[in-house]
Amino acid sequence: MRKTMKRWMAVTAAAVLAGSMMAGCGSSGGSTSGSGTSAAAQAEAAEAGAVGEAAEAPKNGADVHVGIIFTEAGLSGNSFNDLALDGVKRAAEDYGITFDQVEPKSVSDEEIIQDEMASTGEYDLIICVGAEQVDALNNVATTYPEQKFALLDAEVDLPNVASYSCKEQEGSFLAGALAALAKEGQIDEKLNDGNTIGFIGGVDNPLINRFAAGYKAGAQYVNPDMNVLIDYAGGFSDPTTAKTIANTFAEKGADVIFHAAGASGMGMFQAAEEKGFVAIGVNLNQNSLAPDYIMASMLKRLDSSAYHAITTIVEGTYEGGKQVLGLADGGVDVVVEESNIQISEDILAKIEEIRAGIIAGEIEVPLELN
């Protein structure tokens, strides 16, 4: 780790203390302007110094230095932060880049770390993970318009921030197709011969409904008569409500239920074990949590996003703005590894055919529920 990051460690305690003393004087809510400078002036500065406006020469990977700032949750077994770090490590192996990583102790630390990294001028790219860094990055990226940033799984509208998101609907389409094919093939004794499956979202918003729309479309692509029950837990940390919804779905005949509900989904997994239905996980490979009941997981590949961002630096193709990765880019996927529910080779082959059809544009995946 370079001297700059060692210096950050030395000043963090003082900076956090100062920040806490000043917190009562700052603006609250979603303000994105820094103190002493108007938002208009900052935006003008960002436009004047915007990066990525002209093609850049490729770099020797060994000369590329990257910083990655995780969410306050830190690194902990198979989290989004771990996935992002996997992508950085893969880039280090493939390109020879060097990197520093920091686990903030709190959300307020994130802006301090972003500012410290950017102020050194030593980082070719600073990667920030998660929506909780959006407000801080709006401030810092505007202050340092020549610094290149990548934001994973969130969006900041600045020319020096490449904001990475996923085509959740494409991965969910594969999950829905797998659910229908598994029922059609009666691959597990927990599956009935009915035409009902379920989806539990965290909240009813456009992002979560992309999961729902893809899942429903994928299931009905295989079986047009498939009935997809849809409900929302009302939040991402309410496993009790998700469990209640899952139990209700099971009573209505749903024997495969997919969730996009964050920690609320743990309640759905509990219901699967108690009621005896098949579950599908989300975002990470959750199959090992209940391998006799979780058939598959739909992945959001933050490792691919991090790797892609670094590749653009190495190749000289970096561009700020929205970067959306789907099946074709490895941004989403469905995995069955670590599940004890056996998926036949015929079904897996059909899933690969559907994947190829989506990538080729032969299968249209909706963004919204119809």
Textual characterization of the structure:
The chain is an alpha/beta fold. The chain has helices at residues 3-22, 39-48, 80-95, 107-120, 134-143, 168-185, 206-222, 239-251, 265-275, 302-315, 345-359; strands at 65-69, 98-102, 125-129, 149-152, 161-166, 196-201, 227-232, 256-260, 278-283, 294-300, 321-325, 332-335. Strand 8, helix 9 and strand 9 form a beta-alpha-beta unit. Helix 1 (3-22) crosses helix 4 (107-120) and helix 6 runs parallel beside helix 7. The radius of gyration is 22 Å and the shape is elongated. The termini are far apart. The model is unreliable at 1-54 (pLDDT under 50).
Quick overview:
It is built from eleven helices and twelve strands.
Shape verdict = elongated
Distance between the termini: 51 Å
- Content-based structural category: alpha/beta
- Major sheet: 6 strands, parallel
Largest sheet: spatial strand order: 2-1-3-4-5-11
Strand content: 15-25%
Reading the helices and strands in chain order gives HHEHEHEHEEHEHEHEHEEHEEH
Q: Give the helix proportion (percent range).
A: 40-55%
**Number of separate helices:** 11
Low-confidence stretches: 1-54
Annotation, overall tally of beta strands: 12
User: Averaged pLDDT, please?
Assistant: 87
Radius of gyration: 22 Å
Indicate the topology:
Layout (H helix, E strand, L loop, with lengths): L2 H20 L16 H10 L16 E5 L10 H16 L2 E5 L4 H14 L4 E5 L4 H10 L5 E4 L8 E6 L1 H18 L10 E6 L4 H17 L4 E6 L6 H13 L4 E5 L4 H11 L2 E6 L10 E7 L1 H14 L5 E5 L6 E4 L9 H15 L11
Parallel strand pairs: 1-2, 1-3, 3-4, 4-5, 5-11, 6-7, 6-8, 8-9, 9-10
Antiparallel strand pairs: 10-12
Helix pairs in contact: 1-4, 3-10, 4-5, 6-7, 6-11, 8-9
